[in-house]
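Quick check before the chapter quiz. The format below is the same one you will see on the exam, so make sure you can read both the input and the output lines.
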Amino acid sequence: MIEVRNLTKRYGDKLAVDDISFSVEKGEILGFLGPNGAGKSTTMNMLTGYISSTSGQILINGADILEDPITAKSNIGYLPEIPPLYVDMTVDAYLGFMYDLKRCKLPRKAHLNDVCNLCKISGVRNRIIRNLSKGYRQRVGLAQALINNPPVLILDEPTVGLDPNQIIEIRTLIRKLGKNHTVILSSHILPEIQAVCDKIIIINKGVIAANGTADEIARSLTNEHKMTLRIEGSTHTAADKQEITNAIKALGGVKYVRADMEREKGIYDYDVEAEEKTDIRRAINDLCRKKGWNILMLQLSDLTLEDIFLKITMGDAASPAGAASAKPAGPRLDLKIENGELVAAEKGSDTPEQKNELMTEESAADMDKSDTDDTTESEENGGEE
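Here is the expected output.
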């Protein structure tokens, strides 16, 4: 239904989207994720034909979005993050206008009634859009995307501004639409993506960093064995926590142990992480039996979508603390006023006299630093030289 082949987008020297390819079949709901600046919005805009690609191809139900834009766009219902509403119109007039704009062939009155009932906006059809709450405006935006019953729906942040009950209703609606439509859903609300979507694509730095179900992506990211333990110490005191933590750390194959909150007096949760492909559950059970500790819970911890997102988008983003200082510094500027105008000159363009003065100042600073270092060393040695 949607096929993206080697899609690339450049803005001058900046490569926003770098040769990405993916496909979405009919009846699939695809979650499209990415941090700010990753190329997600650019990709969504190219999918809808709002902007053109630098190279590559997008097929919507077999129609090329660049070669045959009218046919391709007639298959798309699009809800941008900010709904495209004419706020001085009533809801009914606006939806009628969108019906005409899309040259819809379905029975007008019945179709608009069905769309309004589906989005639960029948009670506000005669109201001016400007006077609606943000949640209702979002619903009207979704209704315009559904007019003409397009086979492809592209929804960008569809639940922004909705209350919890409305969010649940929209999620249910998206799942219902996904049975007969191809849906691409973009959202920063990760539980929403996990609850609704069949597949997930995570784009980072212009390339696809992950593609598949949440379970498939999690398995490809890590083989780590994580679990949460709830253990009752023998003395029911805080001292048990440190004893239990140290004892679990001493077991073979344990990478990490952290004591969490106290659930009841003397009963704590412990986050435990084992070495790759190492099962330490039996060793923990033996340890607790010997020590007289009771295991009240042992739960394996799978990666959540939030864990996956952070691991992919931040895994290689962290840099050493000194990395920033290693970059060449930009030119230092001297600012002065000449003939009533502000003039900026690079430090590197100093006159010979200024350079000599600067060298003298730097030499004096070095001597001061040397004296300070000697004093510090002398103090550390008890004042003895």
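If your answer matched, good. Residues 2-219 form a domain with the Rossmann fold fold (CATH 3.40.50.300).
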